[in-house]
Design goal:
With about 325 residues, the protein is mainly α. The protein has helices at about 1-30, 30-45, 50-90, 95-125, 130-160, 170-200, 205-230, 230-240, 250-280, 290-325.
Length: about 325
């Protein structure tokens, strides 16, 4: 009984502390915009908060210049390499699809690296010797690179515009809609994460940073739930490998029906857990919201590599059996 009372006492104290910190955070939110502008003005060399909007605009222009330069790489190197790969590998099974998809991924990453290198090289001569300016420009370019990398991975998985190389069994409209949702979610999540990091680097009040973090996580949660329920039919079709529910195993049938409610429940609980942690000031090495997508990407990559290896082994075994069954050529008469 004493241990139970002690646990109840600690729980009551934690709930009271959570309520106090949340109330303080909401009170300070009323003057949040003014305090944010004041902090930005303190960090700006000209004393104006709008200075950082100019830095962001210049950074975007540099990235666009880098993209223009990268078009030369795309036309003269990447496109011919992709054409040769598509001619060499037939899009039949993973052994024919995965090499082309992997090559496209590598070419895209190389182009993105070139893009950022050009933008950063040009920016070295434009960015002043001012730490907040350099941090702002660096965070914008890092956010762009992170978005492009993750978006490329989604494009390689879903293949919305190359249906013959699409690994999941889903229709063209479903694949394109799923990719658009994934791309929008990626852009929002990456931008919010780097925005929170930028606020912290500029020394914005901790309570204001935490409040921004909770609000942006709520926006990401809304997009996640929209993605799940707008694309549940396409994902269910992929789980069933494009077959009717009456022709699949009971595991696939159940999975295609319950994945949406289960993932919805998971993300709701993950958002609540992370919000409580943020309010209480508890640091965690792993976010449940971001961790789910990272786990999904790793699982898909491992599964694709494993299936590719198995498929290659079966193809080699069939080729050896066919060669052994082929009759030996008749000897030539002397």
């Amino acid at each position: 009984d004493e241990a139970r009372l002690s646990m109840l006492r600690r729980t009551s104290e934690n709930v009271s502390l959570f309520r106090q910190r949340l109330e303080r955070m909401l009170r300070e939110a009323r003057s949040g915009i003014g305090r944010l502008e004041t902090r930005l003005a303190v960090n700006a060399p000209d004393g104006r908060a709008g200075y950082f909007a100019g830095v962001a605009l210049v950074s975007v222009i540099l990235i666009l210049i880098g993209r223009a330069v990268t078009q030369l790489y795309a036309v003269y190197l990447a496109r011919p390499a992709m054409i040769r790969a598509q001619r060499h590998f037939r899009p039949v099974g993973l052994s024919g699809k995965l090499p082309v998809i992997a090559l496209r991924m590598l070419l895209t990453v190389a182009g993105m690296t070139l893009n950022l290198a050009v933008a950063a090289g040009l920016g070295l001569g434009l960015v002043a010797d001012h730490v907040p300016t350099q941090v702002t420009a660096g965070i914008i370019m890092a956010a762009y690179g992170s978005f492009m990398l993750i978006d490329t991975v989604w494009r390689m998985i879903v293949n919305p515009y190359l249906p013959e190389y699409r690994i999941p069994r889903m229709g063209d409209m479903g694949a394109r809609r799923l990719y658009i949702w994934l791309s929008a979610l990626t852009a929002t999540t990456v931008a919010s994460r780097f925005y929170i990091a930028w606020l912290g680097e500029l020394g914005v009040d901790v309570e204001l940073v935490r409040l921004n973090h909770i609000v942006l996580n709520l926006l990401a949660l809304a997009l996640i739930l929209g993605l799940i329920w707008s694309n549940r039919a396409a994902v269910s079709e992929a789980i069933r490998h494009g077959r009717p529910i009456s022709e699949v195993t009971w595991i696939s049938a159940i999975g295609s029906r319950i994945w949406a409610p289960l993932t919805t429940l998971y993300f709701l609980l993950a958002w609540m857990e992370e919000s409580v942690r943020i309010v209480m000031g508890l640091e965690a090495q792993w976010s449940l919201l971001a961790g789910a997508f990272i786990t999904l990407l790793v699982a898909l990559a491992v599964q694709a590599a494993g299936l590719y290896g198995v498929e290659r082994l079966f193809e080699r075994s069939r080729a050896l059996r066919a060669a052994a069954a082929r009759p030996a050529p008749a000897p030539e008469p002397e």
